[in-house]
Amino acid sequence: MDELARIEIDPTPRGVVARISGEIDISNVGAVKRKLTDAVTSASPGLVVDVSGTTYLDSSGVYLLFELARALEGRRQQMCVVAPPTTPSTRVLLITGFDHIVPVMSTVEEAIEKVGARAPAAPA
Amino acid sequence: MRADLDAFRSGYLAAFQSYLAGGGETGLESAYELGREAVAGELSLLELAGIHHEVLADCLAGAPEGQLERVARAGTDFFRESLSTFEMIQRGFGEAQETARLEQRHAAQLRGLADAALALNSTLSVDEMLALLGERACAIVGADHSVVRLAADGADGLRRPVREPGRLIAPLIDRDEQALGLIELSGKREGEFTEDDESIVVQLAHMASVAIENARLYELQRGIAMELQSNLLPESLPEIPGVAADYRYSAGGDGEVGGDWFEVIPLAGGRVGMAIGDVVGRGLPAAKMMGHLRPALRAYALDGEPPALVAEHMARFVRMLDRDQMSTCVYAVLEPSTGELRCSNAGHPPPLVLTGDGRADFLVGSPGLPLGVATDYEYGELRATLEPGSTVLLYTDGLVEKRGEPLDVGLERLREVAAGAPVEPLEELCEQVLEALVKEAPGDDVALLAVRVLPPDAGPLELELPAEPGALAELRRRLGAWLVLAGAGEDEAYDMVLATCEAAANAVEHAYGPSEARFRVTAQAEEGEVTIEVHDRGAWRPQRDPRRGRGIGVMRELMDDVSVTSNDGGTNVRLRRRLGEGPQHGRARAHRD
After folding, report:
1. Cα separation of B545 and A13, whole Å?
2. Is B242 in the same domain as B280?
3. What is the pLDDT of residues B60-100, one digit of tens each?
4. Shortest CB distance from A25 goes to which of B505, B558, B587?
5. Which residues numbered 77-106 in A keep a CB inside 8 Å of some CB on B?
6. Which of A1, A38, A40, A34 is nearest to A17 (CA)?
7. Three-state DSSP class for A16?
8. B382, B366 in Cβ contact below 8 A?
9. Is the dihedral of CA B149, B151, B156, B158 positive or negative?
């Protein structure tokens, strides 16, 4: 899609897993959003966005994740973000308080569990 | 037994008188007998001549007038006869001498041949061989001119030697009985070319043919190996912020390609991977092996694995490639902002760490096994902290090994030379170390790699970029590199890049009309504090836009101080942060650990 970021989509029965490697900034945030939105069918329990391999994520990227989570929530689908503490992107998720709005997990397994459980989204 | 001279004289007188009395018709055999007696009695030719003259004088004195001439003539005949034994012996001696002379000459020729063989085999250049062949052949047979021609240069396919008046030609025949060329000699100094000359030149030509064939084969192989090696060694080292690097490579004296290699690899987060290795052996196989090792190491290094794991992967890789081929290597990762050096050693001489004030210490610890020795082996890791201005030297054994000398002595020599060499500039250090040590122990290949941690002394950064979203990626690279130079750690640099890009994203998204589509970023480091300014020519009000508000919030979390000023000239965002302390406030700090 784009030189900065690469997205791998893995549509498991318990939720779609999207692995983003590379960088997200205002130059590609729109494209990333389309790709993620298209990946989630209405039949899927939800979306796991794995940013473990994302080396750069700015506030526009955080805002994208926030919007996406809200849209899915409206469709009764759960979104989780995977960002282990050592991942660079984790910093900006914490700084912006994103983790208070959308669940941020350390592993894909935990996130899948959360999504598969169709738990209601954490209150904003 | 020595004869009595008087008795001999009496005998000589009696025999001569009897010869005279016989009218010169009989008694000459007695003269022959006297000669034999003289030789047996060890009389010299002079003594015999003396006796003859005394006897003749006596006889002449007693001879009647008119008989003098007859007596004198008879005396000459008699004396000549007595000399015949001497003459025979003399002739035998002469022949023996001549034989000895010829044999000596042949021996000299054989010696010449052996010398020539040695000379031919101690060069590897075909041109030199051809010159040597002509020169030596002339010297051996005593000729003035030689011409050596190769079949490739249009010489005809002569297969047998030709010897004719004034010239001698011998073919150069290779192992497959193909005519390689010929050597032609002329201008023989004494007489004509002989059978001996021919046989010796044929032998010499044969030896030269073998040597030429070997040299051609060798040059072919060497050409391939050299080509391989020049493709394999880096043409230049990558430029990496925060470090200076230089290398030297010196090929061994025999001109054959060696298995020494090295790498400098920029890694994620501003770290630097560096490696040096030595494939045991020389020539094409070593060059080929090296060709496998370098990309493998790069791949493992770029995976970001710690040195010990990279060494383990390499060991397994080498083992898989060729069980007979052994090689050694050191792989180290340097974090320029902190000077932290982590290093694993697979049977290689220890890295030398040289401080800015000239202290030199080896990075020792028990070195691991060479690569290719064992499949499952755990490598240890050595750590050191390099102060700014310190240099780590990686090298191959050619720099410190000298025949008949313990390795410790060579290592100590390196330590002393490195400690005594000028620290600045780096290339001078490399030059002096190489020169001093290669002079001491020439012959082997030497690779030397020096990586220095630069003091965090970055001049101000000034960037002017197009106000397009695509410019942000470039801003991240340039600012990130500058921050490493300024002494920022990996996390600090990440934070400041993120904060700056938030400000720049505002500039790109909001501050512009199409006509003024550029923005400026400046950065400077002073007394441990970094100040970054992002300036555009528009005006934006962060608080009105929730997303922009988040951008400002991110900046405030990441920096110690953020100020935004807007006026007619545009908007200026100034970001400041002290180095080495983490942001002074905010959640980011609390969550970091």
Report:
1. 39
2. yes
3. 888 777 777 788 788 888 888 888 777 777 677 677 777 77
4. B505
5. 85, 88, 90-92, 94-97
6. A40
7. strand
8. no
9. positive
Structural domain boundaries enclosing B187: 123-227
- Give the Cα separation of A8 and A20 in Å (integer): 7
Nearest CA-CA distance, residue B519 and chain A, Å: 16
Global confidence as pTM: 0.47
Two structure tokens written together for B323: 């069980």
**Would you state the structure tokens that stand for residue B521, as one six-digit string?**
């970023």
User: How many Cα atoms occupy the beta-carbon half-sphere of B279 within 13 Å?
Assistant: 28
Cβ <8 Å between B554 and A55: no
The reply to whether A21 touches chain B by the CB within 8 Å rule is no
The ipTM estimated for the assembled molecules is 0.86
Considering the four listed CATH numbers 3.30.750.24, 4.10.910.10, 3.30.497.10, 3.40.50.300, the one that applies to the domain covering A5-116 is: 3.30.750.24
Number of H helices and E strands in chain A, helices first, is 4, 6
Q: What backbone phi and psi angles, to 5 degrees, belong to A108?
A: -65, -35
Length of chain A: 124
Radius of gyration of chain A (CA): 13
Q: Cβ–Cβ of A96/B591 closer than 8 Å? A: no
| Chain B residues touching residue A4 (CB < 8 angstroms) | 473
- Domain-wise residue ranges, chain A: 5-116
Taking contacts as CB-CB distances below 8 angstroms, the residues of chain A near B268 are 55
Q: Which chain A residue is nearest to residue B475, measuring alpha carbons?
A: A25
H helical segments located in B193-306: 195-232, 283-302
Encoded amino acid at B36, one letter: R
